[in-house]
Amino acid sequence: MPVALSLGGIVIAFVFYKSTTAYPDRIANRLGSFTHTVKNKFYIDEIYLFVTKKIVFNLVGRPAAWIDRNIVDGMMNTFGAAAQVFSFSISGIQSGRVQNYAAYFLTGIIGLALLFIYVWIH
Amino acid sequence: MMLTILILLPLLTALILAMSNAKASRTVALAGSGIQLLFSLLLLQNYLTERAAGNTALFLFESSSAWFPALNINFHIGVDGISIAMILLTASVVFAGVLVSWKIEKMTKEFFLLLIILSAGAYGFFISLDLFLLFFFLEVAVIPKYLLIGIWGSGKKEYSANKLALMLMGGSALVLVGMIGMYYNSGNSFDLVHLSTFHIPFYIQKIFFPFLFIGFGVFTAIFPFHTWVPDGHSSAPTAASMFLAGISMKLGGYGCLRVATYLMPEAAQYYSGYIVLVAAIAIIYGAFATMMQTDLKYINAYSSVSHCGFVLLGIGMLTKTAITGAVLQMVSHGLMTALFFAAIGMLYERTHTRAVKELGGLMKMMPFISTVFFIAGLCSLGLPGFSGFVAEMTIFVGSWQRSGMFYHIATILACMSIVVTAVYILRATGQSVMGPVNNPKFLTLTDAHWNEKLAAGVLIVGIVAIGVMPFWLNDLVSPGAEAIYNQLSRFALLK
Fold first, then answer.
1. Of B374, B256, B365, B268, which Cα lies nearest the Cα of B310?
2. What is the mean pLDDT of each run of 10 residues along chain B (495 residues)?
3. B381 in Cβ contact with B333 (< 8 Å)
4. How far is CA B251 from CA A41, B127, B172, B333, in A?
5. Does some domain include residue A6?
6. pLDDT tens digit sequence for B183-194
7. Coil, helix or strand for B353?
8. In this structure, is residue A89 part of a structural domain?
9. Which residue in B477, B424, B411, B421 sits closest to B279, CA to CA?
10. Which of the residues B292, B293, B420, B427 would you substitute to probe the A interface, choosing the one with the greatest number of A C-beta atoms within 10 Å?
11. Cα–Cα–Cα angle for A104, A108, A109, nearest 5°?
12. Rounded CA separation B378/B303 (Å)
């Protein structure tokens, strides 16, 4: 059935195309907006461009690219920046002053001693 | 012995390169990588001969010698069909990479030296049957990339090199934690064969599987740890981009499969839904993000995120066909993306731009390069006759075999992404090489030289060989995929 319809359409189109009478034009005018739609290939190209450019590109592609650059990648960069800030904040510990190191050492020893005492008592 | 030679060949090439001058280094690198390619073909032939003779062992050409006995670390190597496929891929991409870098002028010797060391790392990784050895080679395949991008790169090269190295090392750190977790819960063993027979308690698997899978996943651009890919690929010199996308990202996929899934089968099943979810996001999100890119390298980099999502999807689905498809996709994407980057490099070398809008009409002046560009694009969008179609179709079929509404929806979404891929690929290729010539300066440009033709030829042969006759690769990797599937069935959680 579909093949028969297609072949019928092709034959009619060929006859109209070859015809030298005004009959095909008259039919086309009578069909009005349908002829116009067919002439514009059912607006398939326009629909395709509208869907891809206006909807997919603007509403999906652009936000996805923006989110990737600014949020996902931004999150990774934030981790890097946080590590830098943390490193800078503890860089003072490496002062090079022996007195400071001795103080840290003593604090550690006292802390450990207190821990052992606590464990021993309990 | 053959596998030891496979490792020694690039090391010997590197040694000769270190002793040669800049002028001779090209020839040495080409000869070395050419011999590696021929040797990998010989390895394939020997492997097939052994199989035809009835050798049904999972790993062939196995050898083991003590490396660090105190920690039970051994130089244990061996290959199955999956490893052989990855070795062939590595050899092809490195050979093509050397050829497209023929005109490198800056520190030529050092450039080729690092490229060859990278290949040694990749070969070592794919043949390791000891997790510590595997980790060692994984690291060998990371460090030279930092130097290749930092020294020979373009654009924000320092930023990109730092980002890539730090993120990949972060991934390595996760892998290391996962490995140590397995080591202490398996009678102190890093041996892959031993670990595959040892049942690690399920609660331990649940703790350490995410470390291993995400760690290796960073290499294969698992969402949201994929952000090193666009910057790293776009700043890297052509051969490094080819290696990064063609091989480096496959190290991750191979690790997810061979180490995480194979050795922790129960956890793989427990987490499979999450893996599929992340993979589906990467496929769709990567494809849509690609659509808005205007730089050819960024287009290929983002599309790699999407394509590697297929690898993770295949692994996450846990069916035999899907796992086979994941391996096919690794090989296919490796060849295709290397070809794409090679073509982009050839165009950039002549036009000095990668902006799609500034290109146009290049087919008239550069028919060969433009055709290569088109072939890479058509393979990327999964056109029948090229490897991309075979790999993606196998993943779709395998994914559909996994029962459950969630898995079917993920499969449908992955299938739909092909349409998005077609939109950005046809747009990029059409605007770059078809239509009128946008810049009159392009009219004097010349087409590919012998080295570029040979590089493209090697990769295209691989793509077409898989696309037209997929059975040879399918037969090669199927037993390995089946072993992983059987391991999953042995410790079946999900019916």
1. B256
2. 91 93 90 95 94 90 91 93 96 95 89 93 95 94 90 89 91 95 91 91 94 95 90 90 92 95 94 95 92 90 93 94 95 95 93 89 91 93 92 95 94 92 89 87 88 94 94 93 90 61
3. no
4. 49, 12, 11, 13
5. yes
6. 999 888 999 999
7. coil
8. no
9. B411
10. B292
11. 120
12. 13
- Domain-by-domain residue ranges, chain B? 2-490
Sign of the CA dihedral running B286, B290, B292, B297: positive
Residue B281, chain A, CB below 8 Å: the answer is: no
- The verdict on residue A4 lying in a domain is yes
Q: Measured between CA atoms, how close is A42 to chain B, in angstroms?
A: 21
Provide the number of CB pairs (under 8 Å) joining chain A to chain B. 39
A62 with B292: Cβ contact below 8 A:
yes
Q: Can you tell me the distance from the alpha carbon of B59 to that of B207, in angstroms, rounded to the nearest whole number?
A: 28
Q: Which ipTM was obtained for this model? A: 0.75
pLDDT digits (tens, 9 = 90+) for B196-248: 998 889 999 999 999 999 999 999 999 899 999 999 988 999 999 999 999 99
Quote the pLDDT of residue B138.
Answer: 94
Total domain count, chain A: 1
What digits encode the pLDDT tens for the residues A19-77?
Answer: 888 888 888 888 888 888 888 888 998 888 888 888 888 888 888 889 888 898 888 88
Question: Which 8-state DSSP code applies to residue B475?
Answer: H
Q: Does A44 map to a domain?
A: no
Instruction: Kindly determine whether residue B292 and residue A65, on different chains, have CB atoms separated by under 8 Å.
Output: yes
Mutate to test the interface with B, among A68, A75, A84 (most CBs of B within 10 A): A68
Q: Report the alpha-carbon distance of residue B33 to residue A59 in Å, rounded.
A: 47
Mind giving me the DSSP string for B60-106?
A: EEEEEEEEEGGGTEEEEEEE-HHHHHHHHHHHHHHHHHHHHTTT--T
Residue A100 pLDDT greater than 50, yes or no: yes
The pLDDT value given to residue A2: 87
Contacts of B202 (CB under 8 A, 6+ apart): B266, B267, B270
Domain range spanning residue A31? 1-39
Closest alpha carbon within chain B to A60: B288
Q: Are A80 and B291 an interchain contact pair (Cβ–Cβ within 8 Å)?
A: no
* C-alpha atoms less than 13 angstroms from C-alpha of A10 in its C-beta half-sphere: 6
The 3-state DSSP class for residue B295 equals strand
CA B87 – CA B100 distance, rounded (Å): 20
- B423 has a chain A CB within 8 A of its CB: yes
Distance from CA of B163 to the nearest CA of A (A): 9
Which residues of chain A are within 8 Å of residue B225 when distances are taken between CB atoms?
76
Rounded Cα–Cα distance for residues B494 and B268 (Å): 10
Instruction: Give yes or no for a contact between B402 and B318, defined as CB atoms under 8 angstroms apart.
Output: yes
Cα B495 to chain centroid, rounded: 32
Residue B179 has, within 13 A of its CA and on its CB side, a CA count of 24
**Which sign does the torsion angle of CA A71, A73, A74, A78 carry?**
positive
pLDDT in tens, B62-85: 999 999 998 999 999 999 999 999
